[in-house]
């Protein structure tokens, strides 16, 4: 699963779990069809819809030099009723 980085656990993503929608951050170069194929292949589920949006990196300062963290893409994956994905590992901090 090179494209899927980690699951996102926010208030909104936990609320979406009740609608059988799962949220995860993916690599910014991945396409919707690639992510859909990976999810269906590795979790043996049927994806009916995918929504995505691109999130900008945050500004970070290292002494006098101003930089940015990497941009990333967040996907909201909707599964058919009756299917579910086991919880993905949380990102280490």
Question: What are the main properties of this structure?
Answer:
alpha+beta; two-stranded antiparallel sheet; four-stranded antiparallel beta sheet; 93 residues; 2 helices; 6 strands
Q: Strand share of the residues? A: 35-45%
- Secondary-structure content class: alpha+beta
- What would the principal axes of the Cα set say about the shape? elongated
Uncertain parts: none
Based on CA atoms alone, the radius of gyration comes out at: 15 Å
Helix content estimate: 10-25%
Order the strands across the largest sheet as they lie in space: 1-2-6-3
With helices defined by DSSP (H or I, 4 residues minimum), what is the helix count?
A: 2
Q: What is the straight-line distance between the termini? A: 21 Å
- H/E element sequence: EHEHEEEE
Profile the largest sheet.
4 strands, antiparallel
Number of strands: 6
For the residues shown, what is the average pLDDT?
A: 87
Task: Please give a structural write-up.
- The chain has about 90 residues and is α+β, with helices and mostly antiparallel strands.
- The protein has helices at about 10-15, 30-45, and strands spanning about 5, 20-25, 45-55, 60, 65-70, 70-80.
- It has a 4-stranded antiparallel sheet with strand order 1-2-6-3, sandwiched between helices.
- A hairpin with a 2-residue loop joins strand 4 and strand 5 (about 65-70).
- The longest helix has 12 residues, at about 30-45.
- It starts with a strand and ends in a 14-residue tail after the last strand.
- The relative contact order is 0.29.
